[in-house]
Specification:
The complex is a heterodimer of chains A (118) and B (315). Chain A is of the alpha/beta class. Chain A is 30% helix and 35% strand. The radius of gyration of chain B is 21 Å and the shape is elongated. The model of chain B has no long low-confidence stretch (mean pLDDT 91). The chains are: A alpha/beta (118), B alpha/beta (315). At the A-B interface, helix 2 and helix 3 of A face helix 7, helix 8 and helix 9 of B.
Chain lengths: 118, 315
Amino acid sequence: MAYRDKQLVVWRMQRPSGLRLIGAVDVFNVRRVEEVLAGALYGQCDFDVHIDLSLIEFMDVSGIRALVSAAERAEGRHRIILHGLPPLMSKVMEVVGWSDSPTLLIVQEDFPQAEPQD
Amino acid sequence: MPGGVDGFHHEALLYSNANDFLAGTVPFIEEGLASGEAVMVVELPQKIDLLRSYLGAGALAVRFADMAKVGANPALIIPTWRDFLTRNQSEGRHMRGIGEPIYAARRPAELVECQRTEELLNFAFDGGEAWRLLCPYDTSALAPAVVSEARRSHPYVHEVSGQIVSGSRAAGRRAPFDAPFAEAPRDHLSLVVDQGQLDQLRSLVSERARDAGLTEARIGELVSAVNEVATNSLSHGGGVAYVRIWKEDGALVCALVDNGHFDLPLADRERPVRNTQASRGLWLVNHFVDLAQIQSSQRGTEVRLHMWLDPNRIN
């Protein structure tokens, strides 16, 4: 497990590498989520880093901004692929103009079979 | 100079019947088309049909938009004009527009926000590019107070007689956030939200919205909007949000109060720039709720979010 608080659990995944977020991201824990994202990208050999959002109950604008910023900072080294983006989050991204970020790919496919890492 | 103006010309057109309306709008549109300007008309569908039939082939060169759609939330009217200007400026075209935001079927809270929009149009476009915006007002259907406010918020007024006079704006300029809110009803639910309690706020809003009969998609949007406003209170408004929720005349209302002071009148109606750090909460709020009202002074800030219980009501 990469992180846990009263409203969010983050699992680090391997083969393929990435993170699975379960629960809610808001101003209460967004700084920690930024750290977890940075940690998952730091020293990562794989170009593609997958993030599973299919079990996210709520993510505010700052949480989405954390994903978009992480992808921008990793430009050239990594590409972030979002799986299971809930429709509401997808609409948020569209309204605020973040849908076409070149280093952030939103895919319809489920998160690939992967194993949680301790 | 396009149409002989050297800056933003915000003009009210007072009319009392279809003939006056056509006499004020059709030549205005034709003059713009004749000089190669881009022309946009934001009106209710029946007015668009009427104008189309009188403009004939000229109508093909006009961009029409349905006010009941693009201006359903009046806060989205300024971005609509901003986009129109940006698009045509980049092509080097002059432009003019007609927009009738205020019509008899507007709900009372919408009317207040439309009037604020009329005032903010001056704030948004004064000192910028030269263009004319003509705002028709139906004096036969609107209350006299609405017509006198139009005379105040527009620097130029086309009288029913056809005469053009100066508006009374300079005399009665108001601060953008000083329209007082109606008292909240006694029968409301209240909650004080602190850092780390947004999850409770979201559950409560979601429960109330479900009880009020909102669709799942609209519940999610309201919850998201309330969360963004409360986050502003926690981050910039003194760290606490005082939330009240109630049902009134055809709407579910969520009011959020904090101790902050907010004086960026266009902050909720400017399209965010491509920069991930810029604030986007209020822009999102205006796309997710039916109406958002902001009142702010040294004593604090209140944001009221409205979701209509009959969003498809025919205007």
